[in-house]
Amino acid sequence: MLPPSPLFEIIASVDSYSSFLPFMTASTVTARDPASGYPTQAILTVGYGPVQETFTSRVHCDPDRWVVEARSGDRPNNNNTSTSTTVPAATNEEDVFDYLSTRWELVPLPPPPPSTEAAGGALQQRTKVQLDIRFQFRNQFHAAVMGAIEDKVAGAMIEAFEHRIHGMGERMIKG
Fold first, then answer.
1. For FRET with 42, which of 33, 69, 93, 95 sits at 20 to 30 Å CA-CA?
2. 71-127: per-residue pLDDT in tens?
3. Contact at 8 Å (CB) between 91 and 73?
4. Looking at the whole model, is its pTM more than 0.85?
């Protein structure tokens, strides 16, 4: 159980994704917001075996609303609550995705009831994590292959974030 701040920092650390996310073989932030230092663009490579795909993502980090979004491809943003827009990306016939969009939203929750207090009587902050992933493959072969393993891949990625959060989140709070 963690407050939103350390979770947000872990999710916004796009350049570290390749060190813990399965199938993410490279993650390089290529632009940052000059005021906040948060990433605004990244080059990501995903792959399994001989199949590799590199794509550019436009990243939007909003620490006031606890939202991190990444978009690649040509699909406009249909979420009216966001300030990000269409992410133009160079595409060609060999690209795997027409578009790929992820949105993380962290929602602070009220403290748990007193019966679930942490050791020493301190109430722990809790956060609801919402993840929305939308994508469309460029060709039917990739869609068919991914359709067969989509749930397993998504589960492995969420599990990797959970391990990262448990490993780093407590250290970030203790500072």
1. 93
2. 998 755 544 444 433 344 444 445 667 888 999 999 999 877 776 555 554 557 889
3. yes
4. no
